[in-house]
Design goal:
Layout (H helix, E strand, L loop, with lengths): L4 E10 L2 E10 L5 E5 L10 H8 L4 E5 L18 H15 L4 E6 L1 H12 L4 E7 L7 H17 L1 H12 L8 H9 L4 H12 L7 H5 L5 E5 L8 H10 L3 E5 L5 H4 L2 H16 L9 E3 L1
Parallel strand pairs: 3-4, 3-5, 5-6, 6-7, 7-8, 8-9
Antiparallel strand pairs: 1-2, 2-4
Helix pairs in contact: 2-3, 4-5, 4-7
């Protein structure tokens, strides 16, 4: 089924001034779903999932958070935090005129979704969370992102040089996920350092006490053998939230290259969120 796709933008005030954020809208209607990307990745990473959701009648919006993709990229680390990202999602809902949405994302996007649930729970119809980064990911996160901060700060020519090389590769000539990797490499050293700095020294996710108080339905997807996004974090989150379902992916590659099973789980979850009353409760369970 073909669905309409439209690019939109909105503006918000931050410590860096007036910033522009860009998004892609798929489908139409009042059953909203917002999808959020991983750290330093573009919103286009969710294009295939967005199309699958929209084909089932859902109104999907994929957002580039500040400092990512085609949104503005200020070089001030003070404008980047999980809470600030969560506030950007609420501003998006206000801009769209959406009273509620299923909020979801991958890695950074999952954690930002949790922030939205913490700061504006009345706007969250449900949570679709892949690879949340919580307590068990601390050491691996430091190992993965500290070098990025160091290189961007002290060897910016490497980041900017990689950007110049990858920017000229036509995305239409490479496979979809190769294009996403190229887009992720399209970084400016100053803004990349600011993003990593802001997130590295800020709050990673709402505390366990806050997560336990989140009563909206949630679908949590975890991957085995992924040290930065341990399946233990996803399983722990699903056990903390009173109306969450945990789905174990076969690997980190499943939703990228063999998405049918997880796409169907996401579609069924989002549709169920919109079919039941806003305050209805979902029985906790486990899906193989």
């Amino acid at each position: 089924m073909l669905v309409s796709e439209r690019i939109g933008q909105f503006f918000l005030e931050s410590g860096s001034g007036r910033d522009r954020l860009e998004y892609t809208e798929y489908g139409s209607g009042d059953a909203w779903v917002v999808l959020l990307h991983g750290q330093l990745m573009p919103r286009r990473m969710h294009q295939l999932l967005a199309r699958a959701l929209a084909a089932e009648g859902l109104h999907v919006v994929a957002l580039d958070l500040l400092g990512h993709g085609r949104s503005d990229r200020p070089a001030d680390p003070l404008v980047y935090s999980m809470t600030a990202f969560g506030e950007q999602v609420v501003a998006l809902l206000d801009h769209l005129g959406a009273a509620q949405a299923v909020i979801g994302g991958t890695s950074l996007g999952a954690n930002v979704s949790l922030e939205v649930a913490a700061i504006a729970p009345e706007r969250v119809r449900g949570l679709l969370l892949e690879m949340p980064v919580l307590d068990n990911a601390l050491e691996a996160g430091i190992v993965a992102f500290a070098p990025l901060l160091f290189v961007a700060r002290f060897a910016p020519f490497t980041v900017n040089g990689l950007r110049r090389v990858t920017k000229v590769v036509p995305r239409g000539l490479v496979p979809f996920w190769a294009g996403i990797v190229l887009d992720t490499c399209n970084q400016r050293a100053d803004s990349m350092a600011a993003v990593v700095h802001g997130l590295f020294f800020g709050r990673v996710a709402p505390a366990s006490k806050e997560r336990r108080a989140m009563t909206m339905p949630a679908l949590v997807v975890g991957h085995p053998s992924d040290p930065i996004h341990p399946a233990a974090d996803a399983a722990m989150l699903a056990s903390e939230m009173p109306h969450a379902t945990f789905v174990r992916a076969h690997s980190i590659l499943e939703w990228r290259f063999w998405p049918a099973r997880l796409d169907r789980a996401a579609v069924e979850f989002a549709l169920a969120c919109w079919k039941q009353p806003a305050r209805a409760r979902r029985t906790r369970g486990t899906t193989a």
